[in-house]
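FORM 7B: Structural annotation worksheet

SECTION A. Query
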Amino acid sequence: MKKVMAVSALTLVIILAASLMYDYFTISKKEARQIAERYVASQSFKWNVGSISRDRQSWVVYLSPVESVNEITWLIINNRSGSIQKITQPMK
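SECTION B. Predicted structure
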């Protein structure tokens, strides 16, 4: 009985440690919003940060233009490194 309890406790500790490590090494939705807001600020506030959705290894942030612009802009923020890729597409 003690062996079963010890194995169960060890398994629980390993699961908790893995979960904490994953959270530590990945970017949360809140952090992705902060990265996007810093990017917008560095670009003279040309956009407002819109919706944020999760893709496989990244966060996709929709940027709505402040002025009337004929393009759609997204920021792709890597979930692990925090690197930013800007994608702009003309409106049809």
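SECTION C. Observations
The longest strand covers residues 47-55. Residues 35 and 76 are 11 Å apart (CA to CA).

SECTION D. Sign-off
Analyst initials: ____
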